[in-house]
């Protein structure tokens, strides 16, 4: 049975109520406080404080501060007025029960509305981020197209300039050839004119000699020109060896085909795991190499749990968590061991840690999330925190609505809560 806290002090103004509640050495957290318009509850096992307020308050702006062994409430009134008392007097049990249930329903509806609002806001943010990303990609694509167009125009200009240079070179060569032909034809014309000017006709011997000499001069000129052309050719290149140095790589794939960020993250995780395993842990000194594997320790803990050795299973899970604290199944299985050993607060901590690691919620981890909610809800109920336990069971039903066993347990908890309220 809970111990009711009757000692409290309060004062009021036209707009606010100031309430001080002593904790009697108990440690309170925001999770132990529940407040609505007309209902205030503080549940710190084994202590319990409950108040049906005299008039409605603004539960959104009202505050609660924990310190110096007290809880200080600042409750803002919805309508400025002086209250005759802190709680509603001369109210029958049915009315009190109605106000309690109404407060719980309103709190659930408010939480649901806040969740929906957060979901809508998150969707809007995603939509905005997608639009911004599309705009950036469109701007980047346009920038790349502009760069391509500029390069295309630059190459076209360079090609046109090269064509003009080639045409000018061909013209220069044709002009040079015409000049060479003119130089060769001029001596022939001069010789012809000399022949015509002479009165006597030369004999056959002299004509043959002249023809031969002319032919010889022409041949010698062509050989000289060919030798000049041969001298202008560049010398062949010297042989050499080119050395190629490749970038050192841990992975066998080429750097252009790899994802550097993912590879560095993987290498960092491997180095961290090796550092933890090679650290100075007294538990690892006598273990074999295969016994330092978290998966092997998890399987060993599962076998011990099946045999009923819950302490041995907890020790195996503890060592596995020290080696790798990112596996949600380790916390989930250890929570089951703590439930068997009646370590209820540790079971709640391990179940909560497992739920943190089981994110995002996907179909593959539905079964694990259901187990985490059920085990935490069971621990809450065994601590007589039925409201918190019911919340976990309802969360498990949302994930797996066809589970009849969870539905039956949730119904039992509802009956327990109603019985506790009626007895109070």
UniProtKB/TrEMBL annotation:
Residues 190-217 are annotated as: Disordered. One of its GO terms (biological process) is nervous system development. It is found in: Cell projection, Neuron projection; Dynein axonemal particle; Nucleus. One of its GO terms (molecular function) is nuclear estrogen receptor binding. It comes from the Eukaryota. Residues 3-87 form the CS domain. CDD domains: p23_DYX1C1_like. GO terms for cellular component: dynein axonemal particle; extracellular region; neuron projection; nucleus. Keywords: Cell projection, Coiled coil, Cytoplasm, Neurogenesis, Nucleus, Repeat, TPR repeat. Residues 88-154 form a coiled coil. TPR repeats lie at residues 370-403. Its main location: other. This is Dynein axonemal assembly factor 4. The lineage of its organism: Eukaryota, Metazoa, Chordata, Craniata, Vertebrata.
